[in-house]
Amino acid sequence: RLLVLARLGEGAAAAEVAGYHRGLFENALEDHSGEQVSGLLLLYSSYICHVVESCSSTIHLIIRDLASLQNQGHSALLQEIKVLVVAHNIPTRLFPDWYVAIATSPMTCPQGSTQSQSTAEVVAECLSLLLKLAAWIQSSEEDSEDTNESVHTLAPELLIPAETIDYLYNAEECASPEDFLRIYLSPSQPALDSETVWPVPSHFSA
């Protein structure tokens, strides 16, 4: 599972952003034999919140493509992309399909409420809201043919507040796609206990 935040590029339209992701998923299925993608793309007026569920190879393909997209500079469709969560071996999916939803005006939260929380707590709060939204989407599918019409109008309390988005953008723990790939692809080289001891044990200095 992948959770990403990003600011919309200047002039980026909702249909264009959704189309970019659809094309990316189709490419993953056709060229890389990945699993079907499920999740939710929440489109706000100036940013997106996107949760993606698929196999590890597809998740990493998406992150690589986002890194390439961000390197396009100011002309890129998405700006200031942040990778919040990458989780493997998820036992069950939250979403039965991949959805696109538009929120015209996000919820607000009390001033300073996120400042007293750690980044991990704020991310967990986002995931909790997305979990509730997933349950709402699944239940509403039976009652309506169009669950993408207006998530904010139908379930405003489930949307991630704007203040929370801003907080996560400024959190040092949230990496860009490029930084994430650099960390992920770096070989793990744990230090031996003897390398952190001074003076060096005699059996190493002999």
Automatic annotation (TrEMBL):
Pfam families: TEX47
InterPro entries: TEX47-like
Listed PANTHER family: TESTIS-EXPRESSED PROTEIN 47
Name of the protein: TEX47 protein
Native organism: Aramus guarauna
